Amino acid sequence: MKLRIVALAFAALCISRMAAADPPPIKPPPAPGPATGLADSAALRATVFGTPPQDIAPLPAKVPLLEMDLLMPWAQPVPAVFWFDRRLRVWLSAQPKPAPLAIIISGTGSDGNTTKLSTLRAVLYGAGYHVLTMPSPTFPGFIVSASSTGVAGDLLQDGHDLYAAMVEVIAHLPRKVQITDTDVLGYSLGGANAAIVKSIDAREHKLHIHRAVMINPPVSLFATVGRLDKLFAITLGNGDAGVELFYQKLYAQLANLYRASDRVQLDEDFLLGAAASALKTDAEYSAAIALAFRIALSNVFFAGDLYSGTGIVVDPKHPPQVGDSLEETARILRGKSFSEYFTKVLAPYYLKRRPNSTTDTLIAQNRLEVIGDALRSDPDYYAQTNSDDLILDAADLAWLKTTLGPRIAVYDHGGHLGNLGDRQQVSDMLDMLGGRWQAGAQ
Predict the structure, then answer these.
(1) pTM for this structure?
(2) Which of 99, 186, 400, 411 could be joined to 105 by an S-S link, Cβ 3.0–4.6 Å?
(3) Distances from the Cα of 405 to the Cαs of 26, 305, 381, 438, in angstroms?
């Protein structure tokens, strides 16, 4: 429904900011260095435009799709403003015969039925998999229906929430769905989530996950978002004028896309799709990428502030109600960086609940190194990335190569997810999932 789309796009409804006591000062994450693809025109354009149609891998003409809406037994009370997200929404494409199950986790702030997920779903279904697509744990719909905290963005906690949700969903699959094996994969943040989920399953053995494939994963969550915050400040500034001017450039394309679809959401795919049609310069492409991530952060910030009661954006004594205006909150949140979310919402929440933890340990726990031993020793972890991926720096890329060794494919070009669905990327992904991957095959 249209109202729901707007609410998700701009982090739901709002009231004016209320005065609240500041928490004790918390050191923000260290400022990240430059990403590998931020100054690279080809990387920016690949990120915005994606894989050219002529390079997309062959896809089946038809893929069955079942939307499943489930109540999670541990769900917290649902704030009135999020009434539409009481149930977790996932999507299933089932084979008519016994088959392996591929669970795909969406990227930052995205639901379980994005354009990128549709491509991966079609590829995997065509290769003979049952396919289950899951929203990101940073998507408002997941935060409300399946998060045990409401404060998203912590890699380990989000992984446990995802894992519990997967167990619950698979227990409610149609009886005719017969699973012969289970693999997990994800793109962008979903790639890191997939690796964490597999590591949890290695201890809990509830899903018996065999292989995990990370597609363009971050190495450090906080450094990655910090780079995108810097990109936002460089291209759009810290005030709202730059954002409003940029929206004016995109208005016609956004309006056309909005009218053309019964169900669209102002997420990364939607915004970059408009940017590809309306924008022409590297500076404009950089701004579109930065804004797409800032919108995702705004949703996380709003929900985290509401659930934790920190009062940064929402007065906890008078939370927003259905029908309240959302423009002022959208304006406020567009000016909120991840550093502020970390220092005022995420870190205070988790430091209070993790004895003997510090900001340094919290930052360390949000690097893939937290499961580094498993990534090095378990032959069933794989990754795909690009040498010009704008969410990585040179040290991150070197760490992935060293840690995974022959179990990583690094492509010369593609930016961030700009080659997802490409024939080579798909062929390598299927070889990884099938245990056929050989280094250098790409």
Answers:
(1) 0.89
(2) 186
(3) 37, 40, 11, 11
